[in-house]
Amino acid sequence: MKELHEKIIQDGKVLSNDVLKVDAFLNHQIDPPLMQAIGEEFAARFKEDGITKILTIESSGIAPAMMTGLIIGTPVVFARKKKSLTMSDHLFTSSVHSFTKKETNEISVSKDFLQKGDKVLLMDDFLANGQAVLGLLDIIEQAEAELVGVGIVIEKGFQPGGAMIREKGIRVESLAIIQSLEDGKVTFANGESN
Ligand code: G4P
Ligand code: NA
Ligand code: NA
């Protein structure tokens, strides 16, 4: 997606050979017109699929998921990383290990908001090792809901998550796929670079 590639080149910061900082428009400050364009793009890619619900994970998946839900007209549910006071045993839970942060978190979704019969678009801001996506897939299975596909804003193609999820036969749509962050330079899978 051209607009997103341009934004990454303009405002993204390469922190190391494997980490891209996008605090200026996605992970801290949020760019609403860009999120709207992202929502329109996902809505267009999944318009034939009869989606009834979008599932993401707090916090940075919420903004792009929200705009996509607004445009396709479905609710957006985000998995919580900490149990809220008002949530009890009426939950689907899964554990998500972060290789980056070297920690495992229990994620949860209320049984009220994901059910058998739902056709789910799973979304997240980044796809790196794919562990968050695996945890959300586990929750979709527990709910006996149907997965339609996975929508990712930025996929790091040099990390194993994308291949691992696609090998399961799952449709993954990533709006930007980064092939390399070597030498402080962003190179996209389509060959563009800064
Ligand atoms: P995985 O789910 O693909 O296995 O990802 P991993 O454990 O490697 O990532 C842990 C967190 O770091 C996730 O955010 C993920 O979105 C984010 N992340 C991974 N690679 C990058 C990167 O290159 N740049 C940035 N900016 N983030 C990256 P999180 O902890 O869930 O945070 P948030 O959603 O609250 O922002
Ligand atoms: Na995330
Ligand atoms: Na993140």
From TrEMBL:
The answer to whether UniProt assigns keyword Plastid to this entry is no
Top-level taxon of origin:
Bacteria
Q: Residue ranges of the Phosphoribosyltransferase domain?
A: 35-157
Q: Which InterPro entries match?
A: PRTase-like, PRTase_dom, Pur/Pyrimidine_PRTase, Xanthine_PRibTrfase
What reactions does this protein catalyze? XMP + diphosphate = xanthine + 5-phospho-alpha-D-ribose 1-diphosphate
The EC number(s) given in the record are: 2.4.2.22
Q: Which UniProt keywords apply?
A: Cytoplasm, Glycosyltransferase, Purine salvage, Transferase
Q: Where does xanthine bind?
A: L20, N27, K156
User: Which NCBIfam families does UniProt cross-reference here?
Assistant: PRK09219.1 (NF006671), XPRTase (TIGR01744)
The subunit field of the Swiss-Prot or TrEMBL record says: Homodimer.
- Name of the protein this chain belongs to: Xanthine phosphoribosyltransferase
Q: What is the lineage of its organism?
A: Bacteria, Bacillati, Bacillota, Bacilli, Bacillales
Protein's gene: xpt
